[in-house]
Design a protein that fits this description.
Elements (H helix, E strand, L loop, with lengths): L1 H15 L2 H22 L4 H34 L2 H6 L5 H24 L8 H29 L2 H25 L8 H15 L11 H5 L4 H28 L3
C-alpha cells in the first residue's frame, strides 16, 4: 500500500536523522537530573525524581516530534520533493495519511524510549498506561504539526502554531478555573471573558486530563476515566487529520 510505504520512508528518515540521538540524550539527561535530585532532596526524593523525569520526558517527546515534523516538511517543500511525490499516480489522501502514520510511529517510538526510565520509580502497569497516553499525545502533536506546517509552509510559523495549540490545550483548564473564580469581580466584562474562555475550551483537546504525572505517583486512573481521556485524544487526532486532508487537497503547491 502507498500509505504504508510512505510511512516506512518517514521512519527511515527519522532513524537516519538526529531524532534517535536526541531521545537518548534526553534519557541520559533525565537520569543525571534524577541522580542529582536524589542527593539534594531532603524528603520524598523518589516522588520528586519521578515527577521531574516524567515532566521532562513528556516535554522532550512533544518538542522533538514537533520540530522533526516541521523541519522534515519544510525541507521537502524547499527541495521540491513534495511536488515530485504529487506527480506520481498516488492519491493525495494516501500521501497525507502515510506521512501522518509515519510521524505518529516516530512519536510512539519516542514515547517508549522516554518512558522506559520511569520503570526505575513507578509500577510497570502505571508506566505502560502513561506511555500509551504519551504516544497518543505525540500522535496529536504530529497531526497538528503536519497540518499547520503544510498549510503555512514555514518552519517557525508551523512550530509556533503547534506550540500555541499544545500549550493552550494544556493550560485551558487552569484558565477556566481562574475565570470562574468566586473572588473575581462580578461584571458584564467578566461574564463575557468567562464565556469566551469556555468557548475556546470547547475547541481544544483536554490535554490536561492525559499523560498525568499523578498516575505514576498515586496509581493508575480508573478504566472509565482513562478510556474517556484516550477517546478524546483519538477524536481530536481524527479531526486534525480530516482538516489536514481537506487543506492538502485544495493546495496547488
Amino acid at each position: 500500500m502507498p500509505s504504508v510505504t510512505l510511512a516506512r520512508l518517514v521512519l527511515i528518515e527519522a532513524r537516519r536523522g538526529a531524532l534517535p540521538w536526541l531521545a537518548l540524550a534526553a534519557v541520559a539527561a533525565s537520569l543525571a537530573l534524577a541522580a542529582f535530585l536524589s542527593q539534594v532532596a531532603l524528603t520524598e526524593s523518589r516522588a520528586l525524581q519521578l515527577a521531574i523525569v516524567a515532566s521532562a520526558a513528556r516535554a522532550c517527546a512533544v518538542f522533538f516530534l514537533a520540530a522533526h515534523v516541521a523541519s522534515s516538511l519544510v525541507r521537502e517543500l524547499s527541495d521540491k520533493g513534495l511536488e515530485l511525490m504529487l506527480s506520481l499516480p498516488l492519491p493525495r489522501s494516501a500521501q497525507y495519511l502515510g506521512r501522518l502514520a509515519g510521524f505518529s510511529a516516530c512519536g510512539a517510538a519516542l514515547a517508549v524510549v522516554l518512558a522506559a526510565p520511569l520503570l526505575l520509580w513507578a509500577p510497570p502497569a502505571a508506566v505502560v498506561l502513561w506511555g500509551l497516553s504519551l504516544a497518543l499525545e505525540c500522535a496529536l502533536v504530529a497531526a497538528a504539526a503536519l497540518f499547520f506546517t503544510m498549510s503555512l509552509g514555514q518552519l517557525v510559523a508551523g512550530l509556533s502554531a503547534t506550540a500555541g495549540l499544545y500549550v493552550l490545550s494544556r493550560t485551558i483548564a487552569s484558565v477556566q478555573a481562574i475565570a470562574s473564580s468566586p473572588l473575581a469581580e462580578d461584571s458584564t466584562a467578566h461574564d463575557i471573558a468567562r464565556w469566551a474562555v469556555d468557548a475556546v475550551a470547547l475547541l481544544l483537546p483536554r490535554l490536561d486530563s492525559v499523560t498525568r504525572t499523578e498516575w505514576l505517583l498515586y496509581g493508575a486512573p480508573s478504566l472509565q476515566a482513562y478510556a474517556a481521556a484516550i477517546a478524546g485524544l483519538l477524536a481530536y487526532i481524527a479531526l486534525l487529520a480530516a482538516a489536514g486532508l481537506f487543506d492538502f487537497h485544495r493546495e496547488s503547491f
